[in-house]
Predict the structure.
Amino acid sequence: MGKIPQNAKCVFKGILFDIYQYEQKMFDGNYKTFEKITRLPSVQILAITKDNKIMLLNEEQPGRGKYIGVPGGMVERNENHLESAKKELLEELGMKSVNWTLYKEINFGDKIDWPCYYYIAKNCKKIQEPRLEVGEKIESFEVDFDKFIEIVLDEKFKNEQFRQMIFKMKHTKGELEKFKKELFD
């Protein structure tokens, strides 16, 4: 889903997005030009403290307003996604973990190739003060699992894809409990 075809040519290279065009044969034998977009990947971190609390963020960024989220951000062109997740955890929370698990990879759509890597970082420990980027205002707070689920399902939570995942888990027998075990076992 969303992958750029082999025959596509990059027609625009931006900071976050690149646009590709490619010819595709139609059912009547004619060809039509299509476009797809790539975006630099993202990481989201489910940061678990040694006390089995989940770290959340009250965030504000220029042009976005206030919202609640988990630590994360864009994977730079010269990083792999695990390096990026570790960097974001340190920058946004001042925390470090030596217990990382790739929980899930999601691609956001058919016309855009935008992978997002969800990591579980267990036994997170604060080692420094956060070092936020100039466009970020972040206050962290910790919650237990039940409060985490309640907040994620609220419209103030930024990540719609993750909200949908949790909603499906909540309404599929045993899935929410399975997710809880992955976070805390």
